[in-house]
Design goal:
Elements (H helix, E strand, L loop, with lengths): L1 E7 L4 E7 L4 E5 L5 H11 L2 E6 L5 H4 L2 H8 L3 E4 L9 H4 L16 E3 L3 E5 L2 E7 L8 E5 L4 E5 L2 E2 L2 E2 L9 H12 L7 E4 L5 E2 H7 L7
Parallel strand pairs: 3-4, 4-5, 5-6, 10-13
Antiparallel strand pairs: 1-2, 2-3, 7-8, 8-9, 9-10, 11-12, 13-14
Helix pairs in contact: 1-3
Keywords: Hydrolase, Metal-binding, Zinc
InterPro entries: MBL_Glyoxalase_II, Metallo-B-lactamas, RibonucZ/Hydroxyglut_hydro
Protein name: MBL fold metallo-hydrolase
Amino acid sequence: MEWQSLSLGPVQANCYILWNEQLECIIVDPGAEGEKIEAFIKEKGLIPLAILLTHAHFDHIGALDYIRDIYDVPAYVHKKEAAWLNDASLNGSQLFPVGQVAVRPAEKIIEQEGDLTIKHFTFQVLETPGHSPGSISFVLKAENIVISGDALFAGSIGRTDLPGGSHKELLASIHNKLLTLREDTIVLPGHGRPTTIIDEMDGNPFLNGF
């Protein structure tokens, strides 16, 4: 499997595109600038299968309808944030000078943790709330990768001052879910550069003293 990150929109949120030997791809968090996502998919000759959302904040969902209109693929979101997609007061866009963001409901609702299989892709879904109530992380065990959304960053953690955020809950999610993964697991965060679990265990100042 291969992957590529695209930093998109006014806050440079990471959209990830994962693809296999059959050129089938999964799109994670199409936050803005749908034309850039479309151009990359076209350049590589990829066949989109689905869109996964780590959470439903505006900077991770802004190009969702654009991509669905082109490729007619389903979007997956956690049940706790299903109503956020078309509610600017919940998805945060009402709180920032970016214009109100509202997109159509997701076709697929993730009810709980467990394996999620989409054709040749299998993800382990981890509930990692704290940044937002329905934040989830996607683990690709065979690839030793976790897509952490805005839970864990290189040297930092997600903000918890938006609707439904909880600093205590976020720290518990990181320690009980993410830091229990293999130490050499590659972390693909919602913003910024990739990191590893061991690097964050050893050097992330926000995780000391939990």
